[in-house]
Automatic annotation (TrEMBL):
Signal peptide: none
Protein name: TIR domain-containing protein
Source organism (scientific name): Rotaria magnacalcarata
GO biological process, one term: signal transduction
Biased composition (Basic and acidic residues): 167-178
Domain annotation TIR: ranges: 1-118
Alphabetical list of Pfam families matching this protein: TIR_2
Xref: InterPro entries: TIR_dom (IPR000157), Toll_tir_struct_dom_sf (IPR035897)
Stretches the record annotates as Disordered: 147-187
Length: 236
């Protein structure tokens, strides 16, 4: 998206045409909007990934430009400041918004060289997003492992404990020799009950494990969708 003042039409429209010629999808208000201006600008910002802030005195004095730029900042869009007025130094809200950011000066640099810097900034922002996505994916995998280590080993130990108890009942000669008649029947029923409990617990552990994997995968997809909105926006 290109955020600019219509008093800077010439340079800003040239930037727009050069971007689209290189197959970038760019939203820009070419003719001057009417009606629900704020809603249109808000939708444009939401649908954009990078915002070119075309800095000039007229841009700074425009309340619409200020609202647009601040909304983009609040939505954590990538802001790329470019200077389109010779000798202009951003001040006030615009100086605060662009402070610490690398800006491209189209007034002191050849147009093509300045434009290449803009393209480089866009490419750099894409690379940063890919790195963030990779870090997020690794983090979620680590979280999954932590949850499993906290929940599943405890349940597994319970299962092993029950199996060891069954083994003692079945294999200890002393136990068998001292149990006769009804006592033997009672013991066999107890063993069968314990075996059923072990099988039931094993089944539940598998379901818990599958559920954890599904939940963490869903969290990863939601976070990646939130942090990677679609780029731009206005069809050619």
């Amino acid at each position: 998206m290109i955020s600019y003042s219509h008093k800077d039409n010439d340079i800003c429209h040239r930037i727009y045409k050069t971007l689209t010629a290189r197959d970038f999808r760019v939203w820009i208000d070419l003719e001057g909007m009417h009606g629900a201006v704020m809603q249109v600008m808000a939708n444009a910002v939401k649908q954009s990934r990078c915002i070119l802030i075309c800095m000039s005195e007229s841009y700074y004095l425009s309340p619409y430009s200020q609202s647009e730029a601040q909304f983009a900042f609040e939505k954590q869009r990538v802001l790329i400041p470019i200077k389109v007025q010779s000798g202009y130094k951003p001040d006030g809200w615009l100086g605060f918004l662009t402070s610490g950011r690398i800006y491209v000066d189209f007034m002191k640099t050849d147009f093509n060289a300045a434009f290449d810097k803009v393209v480089s900034e866009i490419a750099s922002s894409r690379a940063d997003e890919k790195d963030s996505s990779l870090i997020l994916l690794r983090s979620n995998k680590s979280e999954t492992s932590t949850i499993k280590s906290q929940l599943l080993p405890t349940s597994s130990n319970q299962s092993k404990h029950l199996k060891s108890r069954i083994g003692r009942f079945e294999d200890d000669p002393a136990e068998k020799n001292t149990e006769t008649g009804n006592k033997q029947s009672s013991l066999q029923a107890c063993v069968a009950g314990l075996q059923e409990r072990v099988e039931l617990m094993d089944t539940r552990f598998e379901k818990i494990n599958d559920s954890l994997n599904w939940i963490m995968a869903a969290i990863t997809r939601v976070k990646m969708a939130k942090d990677n909105p679609p780029y731009i926006e206005n069809p050619k």
